[in-house]
Structure formats: structure tokens, C-alpha cells
Amino acid sequence: MGIGWIAAIIIGGVAGWLAGILMDLRFGVLMNIVIGIVGAVIANAVFESANIHVAGGWLGYLVQGFVGACILLFVAKLVRR
After folding, report:
1. If you average pLDDT over residues 29-56, what whole number do you get?
2. Gyration radius from the chain CA atoms
3. TM segments (predicted)?
């Protein structure tokens, strides 16, 4: 496991946690990490298709993870109803 994976896990966890707070959905640490990382993948695809460029580095990944996790949680709330 390289430093890239460790950083992705930490940043994904923070992004998932922040999105959970904003969307008023609480999950455990593991689920926050998964939601943040999957959210970052979703946001990356959305941003690329819309030709939107986010700053690089950990801050860019955090923003992408947060936005994507919010999208993911919004869809999950719609499906849950």
C-alpha cells in the first residue's frame, strides 16, 4: 500500500464525513471512506464531461470527493424514499 492509497483513504474519509454532515446522513468511518472515494470517481467523471478543471493536489481531490459524495448521498436519499 503506497502513500497514494493512504492519502486517498484519508481524503475520501474526510470528504465522505463532510458530505454526510451536509446531507444529514451519518455513517461509520469505513462507509465515509467508501462514499468519499466513490464520490471522487463520480465527480471526476462529471467534471471531465463538463470540462471543469479542479485544482490539483489533495485539496482538489477533497473538493471532488466532497462534491461527488454529496451527489451520491443525494441519489441514495431519493432511492431510499
Report:
1. 82
2. 12
3. 6-22, 29-47, 59-79
